[in-house]
Amino acid sequence: MRHICLYFQLHQPIRLRRYRFFDIGNDHYYYDDYANESAINRLAHTCYLPANKILLDAIKKHKGKFSVAFSISGTLLAQFRTYAPEVIDSFKALAATKQVEFLAETSAHSLAALRNEEEFRRQVAEQVKTIEELFGQTPTVFRNTELIYSDSLGEVVANMGFKAMLAEGAKQVLGWKSPNYLYCNSIEPKLKVLLKNYSLSDDIALRFGNSSWSEWPLTADKFKGWLSALPENEELINIFVNYETFGANNKPETGILEFLKALPDTVLADKNFVFQTPSKVVSLLQPVSAINVPNATSWVDEERDTTSWLGNEMQNEAVDKLYALSEQMHSCEDAVLQKDWQYLQASDHFYYMSTKFFSNGANKAYVSPYVTPYEAFINYMNVLSDFAQRLKHAMPGYMADAEVGQLKSAIAYKDAKIAKLEAELVKAGVAAKPAKARTPRKKAADDEKAPKKETKSIAKTKKSKQE
To answer: Which residues pair with 236 in a beta bridge?
Structure first.
């Protein structure tokens, strides 16, 4: 039996409005509500709702042989609650079938794993709690932002109690090896690693609608033929795809939704295949070896690394200044600041600042709301500057320190003004330069040196003694 693991990612950032330099300190609302609502409603009706219905019908039809997995970012779930609660209901219907698994990830779809372990752990715990509340599942498999993975990160995830983690089957990692097996982390072998078959996955996600592609048009029959052509001993085929592939990145008129509908029927017609969730795969298969990933990989761009978010000085400056606020944020109990902190960590903000050449550059231009990466950087840093000021003002003890500072400034101003007036009087010859006022300590010292006057009673006593 050959296992197919079909996984979908869902994420949308909270888009920032045009935030000018002169807004800093004056306007503390950062978001483009119109753009956010429009995007979510468009995606709900072109992708999420129709694709969910197709999957629900397939699950019911194939009775235990068809399963899928999802990870949905916390920022997208928050927008579903606000703009499209019917999408959450459709995912609850999928969860009720027991054939759909929801994975854990960072709630903010952030780069915290690369910058701040404490914040990373906090976000994962928050996301796990959200999945439990919405879908009645406690995730045991982890999928990091943009499939970012390394040996050291896998060790952290294993110590957090997860059984498995998803990663990219990048060339620089695999070499001659195949992604079509189950592997384990090289530091903590108890953590299983499922590697994406990027060739088959990208055939759907990136090349489906490309009419100049030599294999266009892609059909379910053709795709099933490619699965069957793989060596028989390769027991696991991981197809990891952005969910917006179905109806958004590829418009419905391309036939992408028909492809999704036909795929389960076509593949399961061959009794050698079955669709499994990641946790089911981990329970059924044994890892063939450890996979060594010393440097972080991702599923973005040809390099499959992290340079899409941390590849230039602008991106690194923005990320560094953001996470420099981590310690203060962990002491902050302001709910509005906590929400802003979450939304400002989305990896998309740094992706928009990228200046590198992308192999899928047309798609990048489509998703970025900015004309240039420099515009993205300036807008984000203006927002971050205002956020940092608000955070500083919200810190315990800030008001007391501020009042002391104001009093010191007022005293210094008055002292300077008095000195100026005294100097003008001396210069005009109106009065001699006044003597410096004695301090209490100086006055006490002078009093000690001065001869003490005797009272009448003391003098009388002395006279009587002498007599």
So the answer is: 3
CA atoms within 13 A on the CB side of 96: 9
Tell me, yes or no, whether 6 and 153 share the same domain: yes
Which of 270, 305, 340 is a domain's end point? 305
* Helix or strand (DSSP H, E) at 274: strand 273-275
pTM tops 0.85: no
Domain of 455 in residue numbering reads as 398-466
Query: Alpha-carbon distance 174 to 325, whole Å?
Result: 37
With cut-offs at 50, 70 and 90, classify the pLDDT of residue 430: low
Q: Which H or E element spans position 294? A: none
Q: How far apart are CA 104 and CA 123, in angstroms?
A: 10
Would you place residue 442 in the very low, low, confident or very high pLDDT band (cuts 50, 70, 90)?
Answer: low
| Contact status, residue 382 vs residue 20, Cβ threshold 8 Å | yes
Catalytic residues: 146
CA dihedral 233, 236, 242, 246 (to 10 degrees): 70
Based on its alpha-carbon atoms, the radius of gyration of the chain, rounded to whole angstroms, reads: 33
- Spatial neighbors of 147 by CB under 8 A, at least 6 apart, are 166, 167, 168, 196, 240, 297, 298, 299
Structural domains of the chain, count: 2
